[in-house]
Write a structure and sequence with these properties.
- This protein has one helix spanning 10-41.
- The chain has 42 residues and is an all-alpha fold.
- It has one domain (3-40).
């Protein structure tokens, strides 16, 4: 197995982790907004 064929480097992995963290933050914010809207409806 040739490791040099992998295009996924350490920096790519770190970028991916940062991307995931941002995605989670956005999801949390979206859920908070959804809950607020739901509470306002009832």
């Amino acid at each position: 197995m040739d490791i040099s064929k992998f295009s996924l480097t350490v920096s790519d992995f770190i970028d991916f982790k940062v991307f995931l963290k941002k995605l989670l933050k956005n999801l949390e914010n979206f859920i908070k907004i959804a809950e607020t809207l739901t509470l306002n409806l009832y």
